[in-house]
Structures are given as structure tokens and as C-alpha cells.
Amino acid sequence: MDIGKIDELKIYTLAEDYSGYNSPFWAQHGISFLVRAGFGETKKQILFDTASYAEPLLFNMKIFGIDPKTIDMIGLSHSHFDHTGGLLGIMKEINKEIPIFAHPNIFKVSFATEPEFMYAGIPPLRGGSKEEIEKLGGEWILSKDPVRLVPGIFTLGEIKKEEKVDFEREVTIGLYKLEDGRVLPDEIEDEIGLGINTKKGLIVIGACSHPGIVSMVKKAIEISKVDRAYAVIGGFHLIDADDERVQRTVKELKNIGVKKVYTGHCTGLRAEATFLKEFGRDFEKLHSGKIMTF
Questions:
Q1: Domains of the chain, first to last
Q2: Torsions phi, psi of 285, nearest 5?
Q3: How close are the terminal C-alpha atoms of the chain, in Å?
Q4: What is the pLDDT of residue 167?
Q5: Distance CA 89, CA 50 (A)
Q6: Strand partners for 148
Q7: In the chain, what percentage of residues exceed pLDDT 90?
Q8: d(Cα 28, Cα 35) in Å, to the nearest integer?
């Protein structure tokens, strides 16, 4: 696959667990980015994830001056409610036919049992059903393989267990899924991530990075054949990881050559502190309203 390269890139943080100091933006549990990419005379806007609720997204988009109707396509990283909960409300505002890229297992039944049962998948009243989204114009593009969205931007596709680096083969969250009526451990195989090839190098967005952010960067390098990884963005789900995993994650990202880290959401304070210590001013905490320009 010829990945190509984008000429300009601006990423708006529409939703994050933290809203920043003295900020007019609303925070909520989850993540959502608006990726504005330019290549040649063409500009495209990709909504990547929809956090838990549409209302704060729309509020923050209004502050940014972003009209939902100008969104060209949507990517959903994985099924969890804090990444898909705003989909129905956003689609009602977009109000046109639009491709939605996701893994084929995006509609699976996923749940936690500790401390009690909690459904973790797409919330039906907020995220909507497959059919409801189609009626609003959503065109589901469900692929386990990488897909190029525009020149320079691509989904990572499914990252199989054998593709992961050794210390990331076990997920750091205890979830289950239903498969053929049986309860099985949920390896969260449906997280696809986003890769972006810029003049500075590769940028990888891992909304929760359940497959492991190091494995996701390596997969982006493999797909694009670009060995210069410049930045990683998103939640890295190290909030429940032990110190060894946190340290190895930081070390491996530095070994790969990653220059900038933008993280928050499910990364956890301990891991964020480690990134800050090791990356210094090249670490930046995500928050609703943050703009990243590359």
C-alpha cells in the first residue's frame, strides 16, 4: 500500500478527561480528536473517536469554530463506550453520508465483572446501533486490515498477539466478551489506531492503546515503511500497569526514536510522571481544547 505523505496537519483535542487550567472547554471521560490534514490543494477533516457523550464534543467544537457538517470521515478506535458514546449525537449533526472506519468486532458485547457487571461496548442510547447510524448516513467500513483514508493517513488494522512486543501481549484491563454464547477474556483485538506520515516523521494515535503503544508504533512503521517515528498521541492504558511495564514502554519508545509524547486519558499519573521525567519538555499532557500542529 502506498501510504503517501501529508503536507500539513493540525489535531484538535475535542474531548479528554482533563480540560486544562482556566479553560473554557468541557472535559469528559474518553477521547476524541479532529484531525485536519492538507495535501496539495485538498484539505480533509477526520473525526477520530467520539468520547462518552456528544454534548461536550459539540460544545468544544463550537468554541473551535468547527462545523460538524464539515467532517469528511470518522474513525472509531475500538468499541468501548468512552470512545463511541457520542457517535449517535454527532451523526445527527453531521447529517450526511459519511464513511466510518472500524474493526469488524466493533459491535461485540464487552463487559467488566469487577466490582460488578458493567457493559463496556457501544452504549445503544448514545452511540446508537449499526442500523441507526446507517439511517443517518453512516457507511461502515469494517476492516481487520490497514486502510488508507487520505494520502499519508491510515488505520493500523488489527494487531495480532504474535505481532506485539513481548511485554505488551497481555492487556492491562480485565474485560470479557461474548462469543457464540460463551464468556471469553476480551483481548480488545478491535483497537485499530491511526498512523500519519508527516514531513517530521510518523505520528501514531492510540486512543487507549490496548494492543500496546510500542506495538502500535512498530505496526505503523511496518505498514508505512517509514522508520522515523516522531510522535505518539493518546491514552496508553498504563493506569493499571506495573512499574516494569511502564519503564519498558518509555524505554522502547525512546529506542524507536520517538521525539514527542502527548498523553492523558487512561495513561495514569504514575506513567505520565515517568514520561515527563524521561522526555522532559517533549512530553505534553493532553486536555480538552489542546491543539497540536505538525
A1: 8-293 (3.60.15.10)
A2: -80, 135
A3: 23
A4: 95
A5: 9
A6: 154
A7: 96
A8: 19
- pLDDT at res. 218: 97
What whole-number distance in Å separates Cα of residue 217 and Cα of residue 231?
A: 9
Cell numbers found for residue 141? 467500513
C-alpha cell at 216: 502500535
Q: Residue 1's pLDDT is what?
A: 81
111-167: pLDDT as tens digits: 999 999 999 999 999 999 999 999 999 999 999 999 999 999 999 999 999 999 999
What amino acid is encoded at 215 in this protein? S
d(CA 282, CA 230): 11
Rg, Å, the chain Cα set? 18
Averaged pLDDT for residues 229-251: 96
SS3 category, 288? coil
- Give the pLDDT of residue 234: 97
User: For the residues 198-223, what does the mean pLDDT come to?
Assistant: 96
Sheet containing strand 118-119, edge to edge, reads: 118-119, 110-112, 176-179, 182-185
Kindly give the pairing relationship between strand 291-293 and strand 8-15: antiparallel
C-alpha cell at 289: 481544547
Place of cell 467520539: 50
What is the mean predicted confidence (pLDDT) over 235-242? 95
